Amino acid sequence: MNNLHVGSCLCGGVNYEISGDFERFYLCHCPRCRKDTGSAHSANLFSTTARLVWLTGQDRVKTYQLPTTRHQRSFCRDCGSALPDLQMEGALLVVPAGSLDGAAPIEPNAHIFVASRANWDDDLESLPRCDGLPA
Predict the structure, then answer these.
(1) What's the CA gap between 129 and 70, in Å, rounded?
(2) Mind listing the pLDDT tens digit for each residue in 17-35?
(3) Against a cut of 0.85, is the pTM above it?
């Protein structure tokens, strides 16, 4: 039985569903993924067997391929939200975990490219936690 996962972009113009399972979930600290997200790392789910169906807004999905590399990402052309992307000539589905409308179905497997992590990405667990904006 296949699992069904749904997701969307921030503006709601793009909606998708994925049928199948994810094999891996990596938090990538490479400089390219940090640039893609503007954050400490990307959080992507990977599958070689799951199938992606665009429910709405496929015409709003833009894909950027970094020249002379295999690095690429898809995003909503209206709001910029990261979206699923078929890579390696369709053999690999990469899904930004934050684009799912529900919880990620698996826990992260590993932090990767940690040698490239941001200089401010040490001991973040010790920072104060707030449920909303700090007072």
Answers:
(1) 37
(2) 999 999 999 999 999 999 9
(3) yes
